[in-house]
Amino acid sequence: MTTQVDADFSAIKTAKRANVLSLFTSGSTLICCALPATLVAIGSAATLTSLVSNFPQLIWISEHKPLVFGLAGAMLVIAGYLQWQARNAPCPADAQLAAVCSKTRKNALLVYWLSVAIFSIGGFFAFVAPLLI
Questions:
Q1: N or C: which end of the chain has fewer CB within 10 A?
Q2: Residue 43 DSSP code
Q3: Where are the beta strands (DSSP E) in the chain?
Q4: Which is nearest to 125 in space by CA: 51, 40, 67, 43?
């Protein structure tokens, strides 16, 4: 039989998993846009050419920026909602489990905001920086 505390701890774990997934989807925004722009800006066009020849999927990701950013943004919204739902979930009464619960909650929040930062950097290089050049 599942108790309320177990269900709340499960909600925190679900939020953490969604945050980790949003980190990976946000990372794709850096790969598609920030990495190529940075390599060209520092004069490493040959490195970019070598990278693209070894990983031709980068071209597909760059050509489909709206899709990549849409999926990453959707994951961030879902992760943010789950994070919001788990924000007031009580931790177990046991001191050791409460410490794990509190640490898990803090780590999940850190991963979420890191994902938002990565998404923002990728968005800048994909959509704002080309307008400034």
A1: N
A2: T
A3: none
A4: 40
| C-alpha Rg value of the chain to the nearest Å | 19
Look-up: residue for tokens 């800048």?
124
3-state secondary structure of 42: coil
**18 close to 78: Cβ distance less than 8 angstroms:** yes
pLDDT in tens, 63-105: 888 998 898 899 889 888 888 888 888 877 888 988 888 888 8
pTM (global) more than 0.90 = no
Helices (H) and strands (E) in the chain, counts: 7, 0
3-class state of residue 58 by DSSP: helix
Is the pLDDT reported for residue 6 higher than 70? no
Token pair recorded at residue 127: 């959509």
pLDDT at residue 79, as a whole number: 86
**Helices 95-123, 65-86: inter-axial angle, 10-degree rounding:** 150
One-letter amino acid of 81: Y
